[in-house]
Amino acid sequence: MHTPKEHRQLQVDAVARILAIAAVLVPCLALAGHDPAVPKEDHAARSALNKVPAARSALRPIVATFSVAAYDPATGEVGVAVQSKFFGVGVVVPWCRAGVGAVATQAYANTTYGVRGLELMAEGTSPDAAILELLKDDEDRAHRQVGMVMVREATPGVTLKTAADTNAHHLTSMLPLGVAGSLAGVAATYTGEDCLDWAGGHAGVTADGIVYAAQGNILAGPGVVEAMAAAMEEADSVELGELTDEEARALETPDLAGRMLAALIAGQAAGGDSRGMQSAALKVAQEGAGYGGFTDVKYDLRVDDAEDPFHELARLLNLARPVSLAFEGYNKLYAGDFAAATSIFSKLVELEPESAGHHYNLACALSLSGSLDDAMEQLKIALELDPQMLPHARGDSDLDPLRTREDFMSLLGEESASEE
Predict the structure, then answer these.
(1) pLDDT per residue over 248-268, tens digit each?
(2) Which of 122, 176, 282, 355 is most deeply buried (CB count within 10 A of its CB)?
(3) Nearest one of 383, 361, 198 to 272, comparing CA atoms
């Protein structure tokens, strides 16, 4: 383990050696898989595999990893899932914004690609054009790796700005871009020629419309990215290895988070990061999905250091899903959509029958919707599970429709209005 001073000196020495070599050798590009064109409107499932198989030389600190960025038009969710032999990968790689898109920035990661990439896509710039814009003035672009997905409806009424429209379009003949798209979204992935072997990416659109970009570096081989892409397409057809109970449970729900987690697990089963495992993260944004509907953060899960980050990420997702579903239920309830709230809280009761809170929330939704007998049944269960909820129930306006009932007032230990 080097001290910071020793590490800096090693970097200086490495750069000096490279400069000495550069003085006598003419550098050349070894690029493959170029496909810069944005798909036509009706091109629903185009994909391009972008590989950079040449050997690499480790000169800088890197975020060697494999990741997938994705957009699900059916739900409006955008997100990134990532794993790396690197501490705290979740603070570097994943970036997403509801209604706009998602970015995974890695290798010799430039974290400004996250913020700037989302800004460019919000302005109507396609992912491939945004990547070119980010790379054009970046002296270290040969060391970067990035995947982007864009919500095509992000800028209604604005014509999509493609790679051919940018002042960096001349780079399309030099840089390896993989692009895929549909009427709903566009994806692009880029791997710099100096990313460490094996490095590459794949952009695609699944049969059910999910747009994704999968990429990685310092991988065991191209099979890692291929397995990730296959898992996004159809997880049941991919070898996922021996799953832990938490992983198997997390993958039972085929939402965007589950699909991206499946892609990571499939990538690991195919060899993963050639150095091993350490950290993982999963970030998903959806309009109004956060607490109280005040934010768009649906999931922001991080495993900073673990022997098995896949298991830990699955465990956190299993904990997060009911919480996120409850947030959605609250939002529906207070928006006056009692039927949707009832459906959500019923599902939560089914998932976690010992949770007094779920039964209580279902009682509130049923009360407001006029299903008073069912509301009483759920309220009784909630108070049996947690008698400390009684004071709150006495003053909860969501239960006002029940206050004329003698059984309700008796349950709360109060006199009914008719007795008064």
Answers:
(1) 999 999 999 999 999 999 999
(2) 282
(3) 198
**In this structure, what CATH number is given to the domain that contains residue 182?**
3.60.20.10
CA 76 to CA 36: how far, in whole Å?
A: 26
Question: What is the domain count for the chain?
Answer: 2
Instruction: Identify the CA nearest to 213 among candidates 184, 190, 193.
Output: 190
Q: Exposed, middle or buried, 304 (CB in 10 Å: 0-12/13-18/19+)?
A: middle
DSSP string spanning 129-194? Answer: HHHHHHHTT-TTGGGEEEEEEEEGGGSTT---B-GGGSTTGGGGGTS-EEEEE-SSEEEEEEE-TT
Burial of 276 (0-12, 13-18, 19+ CB in 10 A): exposed
Measured between alpha carbons, how far is 368 from 370 in angstroms, rounded to an integer? 5
State the Cα–Cα distance between residues 147 and 109, nearest whole angstrom.
12
Structural domain for 102, as ranges:
32-328
Task: Take residue 184 and report the two structure tokens written for it.
Answer: 């709903």
Domain end (from 306, 328, 350): 328
Q: Mark whether 349 and 307 lie in a shared domain.
A: no
Q: What is the pTM of this model?
A: 0.79
Give the C-alpha separation, 104 to 281, whole Å.
11
Backbone angle region of 136, left / alpha / beta, with phi > 0 → left and psi within -120 to 50 → alpha: alpha
Give the integer Cα–Cα distance in Å for 235 and 266.
8
DSSP per-residue string spanning 257-286: HHHHHHHHHHHHHTT-BTT---EEEEEEE-
Instruction: Write phi, then psi, for 78 (nearest 5 degrees).
Output: -125, 150
Residues 249 and 348 in one domain: no
- pLDDT tens-digit map of 202-252: 999 999 999 999 999 999 999 999 999 999 998 777 889 899 999 999 999
Domain for residue 5, yes or no?
no
Q: With beta carbons less than 8 A apart as the criterion, state whether 178 and 146 touch.
A: no
Amino acid at 252: E
Last residue of a domain, one of 262, 294, 328: 328
Helix (H) or strand (E) holding 384: helix 372-385
> Does one domain contain both 122 and 157?
yes
Contact predicate 110/128, CB 8 Å: no
The Cα–Cα gap between 309 and 81 comes to: 12
